[in-house]
Design brief:
354 residues, alpha+beta, seven-stranded mixed β-sheet, 2 domains, globular, three-stranded antiparallel β-sheet, 12 strands
Length: 354
């Protein structure tokens, strides 16, 4: 007998991320030497590229620096395939605020009530706070920005699962929304239609100095004619579930400023939330002397077995990985073993019901 709410729901795993920029070292303009932060680490900042920065399996199909990818959107729910919010990141706590222009969820310091920073010891997520959008002091100070998390299939790349791209470009967000609106006007859907995701040059006005500049923006294209689109409209849809987009990394194409270390980063914090960077750099060891996993390695393994963040936290009986797990002296490897055991037990229970 099928289990209602479980058996009929098919979830795709996240195979990986594709980026719109790379990390480069900040150099002293006088000496040309790398600039270091207060922890003795070389400061890096994101720099947008005119091509998709792809992992090896995608490069094997499209080359090292593609600007076009064949994609399929697997769901209609915009919250899943083109999730978009105002987001603010901290070098210490990762994502600390997410809002929609009306309300937001903020990670705050319990003692001060202010947004969590590097001096915070005890933090908690507070929901339903007002979000003034672009009128927010943090947005105007370039600590917050609009972001979009795109999730899609790459039908020409081996593997069954979704890929994710994060962008902080308002022009790219508008393009994707406009492209989706046009597709729905013609086909009454965006899912399961062969599309091309492109990175195209666009001339814009720099708000800082009023001068023109060329930036690269995302677009969804359909290389066929209108008749082919209308034919795609009539094809049977497949219902799938995909995980919520990962929010642990900040976009590399356009990002806010970060002065948390007392040093100016030209455009943003680096690709990973610093919580992950510090854990990677520390390379903590288990009792057996084995290097603990990094945050990125852990979530990659978790995603590989089809578990999203929410399910992982439920299996670990926690609400926050840093506060409820790592700060208690536990490791990522311990967490992964618990999650694997829970998945195995669930599989055995399903087998017993057949």
């Amino acid at each position: 007998m099928p289990i209602k709410g479980l058996t009929e729901n098919h979830r795709l795993i996240r195979l990986g991320k594709i980026h719109l920029g790379i990390k480069v070292e900040k150099l002293d303009p006088k000496t040309g030497d790398p600039v270091y932060n207060t922890r003795g680490e070389v400061i890096t900042y994101p720099k947008a590229t005119d091509y998709f920065v792809c992992p090896p399996e995608v490069q094997a199909v499209y080359g090292e620096q593609p600007d076009r990818l064949d994609v399929i959107i697997p769901v209609e729910d915009d919250e899943l395939w083109c999730n978009q919010y105002y987001r603010q990141y901290s070098r210490t706590w990762g994502l600390v605020c997410r809002g929609d222009g009306e309300t937001c969820n903020r990670k705050i310091d319990r003692q001060t009530g202010a947004i969590a920073n590097r001096d915070s010891k005890d933090v908690v997520w507070k929901e339903g706070m007002p979000c003034p959008g672009r009128d927010c002091p943090d947005y105007q100070a370039k600590k917050c920005q609009e972001t979009m998390n795109l999730q899609f299939l790459l039908p020409r790349v081996p593997g069954l699962g979704v890929w994710q791209i994060d962008t902080g470009s308002v022009n790219s967000i508008r393009n994707i929304n406009d492209n989706a609106a046009m597709l729905r006007a013609v086909c009454d859907r965006v899912s399961w239609i062969p599309l091309t995701l492109t990175l195209e040059p666009k001339e814009v006005i720099n708000p800082d100095d009023g001068k023109k500049k060329v930036v690269r923006c995302l677009n969804l294209r359909h290389d066929k004619g209108l008749l082919e689109i209308l034919e795609a409209r009539d094809k049977t849809r497949t219902t799938l579930l995909i995980p919520m987009p990962a929010e642990d990394q900040q976009p590399l194409d356009e990002s806010p400023e970060d002065e948390e270390d007392g040093l100016f980063l030209p455009e943003a914090i680096a690709e990973q939330s610093v919580a992950a960077e510090q854990q990677d750099a520390a390379a903590e060891h288990t009792d057996e002397g084995e290097r603990d996993m990094s945050s990125t390695e852990f979530w990659s393994e978790v995603g590989g077995i089809g578990i999203d963040h929410e399910d992982a936290f439920g299996m670990l009986d926690i609400k926050d990985m840093g506060r409820d797990w790592l700060k208690k002296g536990k490791t990522y490897r311990e967490a992964l073993e618990i999650i694997r055991d829970a998945v195995a037990q669930l599989a055995q229970q399903r087998m017993g019901l057949r």
